[in-house]
Amino acid sequence: MKKALITGITGQDGSYLSEFLLDKGYQVHGIIRRSSTVNTGRIAHLLQGPDANPNLLVHYGDLTDSGSLCKLLYKIQPDEVYNLGAQSHVKVSFDVPEYTSDANGLGTLRFLDCIREVKPDTRFYQASSSELFGKVREIPQNENTPFYPRSPYAAAKLYAYWITVNYREAYDLFACNGILFNHESPRRGETFVTRKITLGISNILKGRQDKLVLGNLDAKRDWGYAKDYVEAMWLILQQPAPEDYVIATGETHTVREFCELAFKHAGITLKWEGQGISEKALDSTTGKELITINSEYFRPTEVDLLLGDPSKAKSKLNWTQKVSFEELVKLMVESDLKN
Ligand code: NDP
Ligand code: GDR
Question: Keywords in UniProt for this one (predicted)?
Answer without folding.
Answer: Lyase, NADP
